[in-house]
Amino acid sequence: MIRFEQVTKQFPDGTEALKDISVTFPTYKLTVLIGPSGCGKTTLMRMVNKLETPTKGNVFIDEKSINGLDEVQLRRSIGYVIQRIGLFPHMTIEENVSLVPRLLEWPKQQTAERVDELLELVGLEPSVYKQRYPLELSGGQQQRVGVVRALAGDPNIVLMDEPFSALDPISREQLQEDLRNLQQEIRKTIVFVTHDMDEALKLADQVVLMREGRIEQIGTPQELINQPANDFVRSFIGMDRINRQRSFGERKLKEFLPVFGAEPGGSALQISSEATIDEAFAKLEESGYSYLEIHEGGRVSAYASDRDLVKAALLKEAGERV
Amino acid sequence: MRNFWDTIVSRQDMIQNAFLEHIYLSFVAVAIGIAIALPTGIIIARYRRYAEPVIGVTAIFQTIPSLALFGFLVPILGIGSTTALIALIIYALLPILRNTYTGITGVDGSVIEAGRGMGMTRTQILRQIELPLALPFIMAGIRTATVLTVGIATLATFVGAGGLGDIIYRGLQSYNNSLVLVGALPVALLAIGFDLILKWIEKRATPRGLKN
Q: Which H or E run includes A89?
């Protein structure tokens, strides 16, 4: 868990990037920081690994203040992915990925195994890619390496600063998908900065919406859409998206079956395919189950989590036929 | 042409001596130049506000005509190879210093940011990222400095430091064109030779991932 306590940041030129921020990023959850440029989201994230230090206030990791921690040691224990990827062009993919384990002086054997394991995790065949150099890879492949490089030291926390925004739409979508699957598998506390609302809704467990150094709203994607806290939130999410989302809520689950998965990822609650999306959300929330087992004509026809429901909404908005 | 050959044969010892002296002067001057300019370049790349003044000073040195610089130094340091070396070192500084600075400051900021964010120390970033990526630039600077120094070292003769300049000067004094050529040709060959060797090293120094 990462906790900010009344954090203020003033830059030397007098601008206040963060104004008395108190917020918690829960363990094993993906928290998205979003807002217009200059809202302080990146500054907030960079405080977690001390790339920025608060002018006032405190940052705690697992209730331990990071104030007294050595910044180099701290950074080695936290994964870090940046927008411009920042792979070392003179090092092979293997050398790039193994950087943090080498800094941590892991045994050679363990480091080598870790590199193979990570490359396989993102679908890059180790024997093919290990000895290549970053410039020989496509942008999407490079950022895949960027992501696993951040995971190499097996950190509990991973910071991602607009990691996919420089990629083409297809790679971006693919990597978002991969990240979600990865997150189910590896369970890290992820802090993800973006300015893309679709990306936020698609990936987030918790969204922190910021403006001018303050937090406007904290909530799940669904909460933001259903109960925007004020006009700014409403306009940032987009009235379009909210309206479509609303009418979308009245549509029935059976329309979206192709989007949903065939396997549950956890305990599931039974529901009829005649139920509406809104009812489905409500059921999930009150029951505490993470999956719905959708029944149609007496048979189980699909499984859906709250994320799948949001995803269905986004697909619909993107104009895809569902 | 016959004359030229005769001169070479008859002055063989002298040529050989002058050639070795010339190499010695150039080599030592460049080596000391690297020893001064490389660390200085690294330092001003870290403390950038000092970069302009420091590079400025070496640039001013560079503008002093070489013959005049040798002349200035004699009253202060007397004659001999020390004076010649100091003058040559001063000339070698600028290309090495400027290229080291440009090379390091030209390293892509996102790469440094990634290194810092992953917990590399200042020194690790310098040694594992900045220097390897700046190496082609630094080598190019050393190459320029070397060729320059080999040329200017011909003036060392005026402060009694020997070198191939001795032969050229003697030839000029005695209107002996063959002798001038006998001095000048090895200087050119030396410059070309050094240049080729350093070019090869420069190529080798370019990290593999940066080629293409």
A: none
> Using one digit for the tens of pLDDT, what is the confidence trace for B80-104?
888 999 999 999 999 999 999 999 9
Nearest C-alpha in A relative to B110: A86
Contact A66, A59 (CB under 8 A): yes
CB distance A88–B111 less than 8 Å? yes
- Report whether A118 contacts A129 (CB < 8 A): no
Nearest by CB to residue A49, choosing from B115, B117, B128, is: B117
Q: What is the pLDDT of residue B143?
A: 94
Kindly provide the ipTM of the predicted complex, given to two decimals: 0.80
Q: Which residue has the higher pLDDT, B4 or A318?
A: B4
Among the partner-chain residues B117, B132, B207, the one whose CB lies closest to the CB of A80 is B117
Q: Which residue among A51, A73, A87 sits closest to B117, beta carbon to beta carbon?
A: A51
Best interface-test mutation with A: which of B110, B116, B118 has the largest number of A CBs within 10 A?
A: B118
pTM for the whole thing?
A: 0.79
Which chain B residues touch A100 with a CB distance below 8 Å? 118-119
**Hey, are the CB atoms on B110 and A159 less than 8 Å from each other?**
no
The answer to whether A130 and A119 have CB atoms below 8 angstroms apart is yes
Per the DSSP assignment, residues forming a β-bridge with A190 are: A30, A158
**pLDDT value, residue B1:** 65
E-only strand ranges, chain A: 2-10, 16-25, 30-34, 56-61, 64-65, 78-81, 157-161, 189-194, 206-211, 214-219, 268-272, 291-296, 299-304
